[in-house]
Amino acid sequence: MTDVQLKELLAEMSLGEKIEQMIQFHGGFYGDVKLITGPGHDYSVKPDQQWRIGTVLGEAGYEHLKKLQDGFMEKQPHHIPSIFMADVIHGYKTIYPVPLGQGASFDPELTKELAGATAKEASAAGLHVTFSPMCDLSRDARWGRCMEGTGEDPWLNARFAEATVLGYQGDGIEKQGNIAACVKHFAAYGAATAGKDYSGVELCERTLLDDYLPSYEAAVKAGAPLVMSAFNTINRIPCSTNKWLMRKILREKMGFDGVVISDYGAVQETVVHSASYDKADAAAKALRAGLDIDMMSDCYLSYLEEQAKESEELRQLIDESCLRVLELKNKLGLFDNPIRGSKELEEAYFYCDAHKELSVRAARESATLLKNDGLLPISKNSKIAVVGKLATSTNIVGSWAIFAEADKTVTFADAIKSRYPETEVFVYPYDEADEKMLSGCKACDVVIACIGEEDFKTGESKSISDVTLCPEHQALFNAVYGVNQNVLSLLYAGRPLAIPMLAEKSKAILDAWYPGTFGNIGICELIFGDANPCGRVPMSFPHTTGQLPMHYSAFTTGRPVENWTGYVPFASNYMDVTNVALYPFGFGLSYSEFTYSPVELSADTLQKDGKITATVTVTNKGTRDGKELVQLYIRDVKGSVIRPCRELKGLTKPFIKAGESVTVSFDITEDMLRFHNEDMEFVAEPGEFMVWIGGSSLTQNGVNFRLI
Ligand code: GLC
After folding, report:
1. pTM of model > 0.90
2. Among 107, 140, 153, 263, which one carries the catalytic annotation?
3. With contact defined as beta carbons under 8 Å apart, do 438 and 468 qualify?
4. Architecture of the domain defined by 3-38+48-345
5. Is 184 a pocket residue for ligand 1 (Cβ < 6 Å)?
6. 298 pocket-lining for ligand 1 (C-beta < 6 Å)
7. What's residue 297's pLDDT?
8. Which option is the CATH number for 359-533: 3.30.420.40, 3.40.50.1700, 2.20.28.10, 1.10.10.10?
9. Does 294 qualify as catalytic in the annotation?
10. Whose CA is nearest to atom 6 of ligand 1?
11. Which CATH architecture has domain 594-707?
12. Where are the domains of the chain?
């Protein structure tokens, strides 16, 4: 439809019909569930009104959605189709590593491929929109949803956010095979106080702008047509009714002109937050904040029309919001092609060989080797004991894999037997060591302890107060370690766990994160050396929970402690634990050994509109070909406000043959140095900078330059 036609359609609609377009119901309203006892039992839904609602949450499957859409087209007075949206976060049927695992790959291009494959499956199943990418920066592993994001670094998160949008949307959201992205959760949901889900966010404006918003902005700039407002507050105002955040920042500063949808029930929760007097007040405030779709609350449904009848301002705002929803439907091509997908496409894409290979490759690229005292790679002729319930668990695909099918998931035990049938493997798939397990472990060359947390222990509403590896798995580890010290700790987790005991005793630690449907095949290939680990830490591993929140790009403070070797009185440190991470951001091992030449600069001064180039030579001194994550960090040594001790500003992941070297160069330009200064201007300030290039955030391989 043309813009004129859309406006003509809007003009034909009644006030009530416009409001119905600004609502999202979940599938419970369309099943055989009776409304009086169903999901909206307290909603005053008129007969058949559910067939006039603008968008549907959480339903999928070609035949099911075709039937639903037929209902909308028949019963909606203007035959306006609905939009089908669902949480397809890291795969639809073929599940890929959780986003935090993808973050560990430090490979946004891989994530773009995964998003593209996901879109093929989701759109085959009739979906139009996915509630992804989740762009929330997280620096607190107590927060269960850190598994849904790509870690602690603003620059890296922004690269993954834009790659995800581009992957989903491909050559156009109106095309079969693509889906529209919805950027969430706007904003800074990952800064939940004390890592407790849904709790308030207390950030200064500069930290919000410099650290938390870049990933959302990158996703918006990449063309995402939807943004979801978060449950939390910003400046003590709930995001869904926060005019400063949603209009000034999102729409004016970032230039977003698409649809804003609330998180689930978030509009009515503003009443519970005590920021709205009642649902009518919540509805008016959300509308004024520019919120276009009320997901699963009845504020818009039941409390907007009466107010709007008395208010030209509200009627105008309703026209604007409803038009944005109609424009989205038009961009999705729904007026011409309301039905997406087909049975044939589902059969062609679900679990297809290409997606299976992608799932294996992504797991290989994401798994992070944290320790290796020569135990890995394991010889295929070894006798191996595999212990722990996680060895045969299918709960290793990660949270938000709502359309996954457990019987398709390859467990670790399945993978090792199918991929390495000639290797002698004895599996003890339980968490309490018994005589049989211990004697078996004793008789083997190597023990692989599958430990961590099953995937239902992370995700939404899964915050924990202690991220230490659970006592049961510590006991299991110590029991098998007591009879055989050649233990590989194979971690399955959606967050950085505190594992100081494993770090001390394991001969090797490989973090598989949650590798997805076929990912365990890739994990086995790493363990046996048919692939070389190249994952890196995307979110700092603490020694103890007490260190949280933590991240590498911290501030020095006025009393820093360099190279902590023990408590320093009257300085910024703890009496009982070091200041640094057990495994820091950007760290990871491989079967190769990489060395770096000193950093060379093309000049030691950078002009405002110029560039300088930083160059290193990276050599693979090992005996194995492999990939190295070459990381560029920059520090603004002095500023009108305090500046982080260093920030990731570039990366590349060259494949380097054993014994060979590659030259890596990064261009440095003034725009990379910008931040919000004391006057909240987004600028770079002249002065001294440090630049480092190395294999983790701890690299000291650096030189300085001046911006003039
Ligand atoms: C949930 C989540 C959000 C999700 C939405 C719809 O509460 O916070 O990430 O997209 O509801 O399922």
Report:
1. yes
2. 263
3. no
4. Alpha-Beta Barrel (3.20)
5. yes
6. no
7. 94
8. 3.40.50.1700
9. no
10. 264
11. Sandwich (2.60)
12. 3-38+48-345, 359-533, 594-707
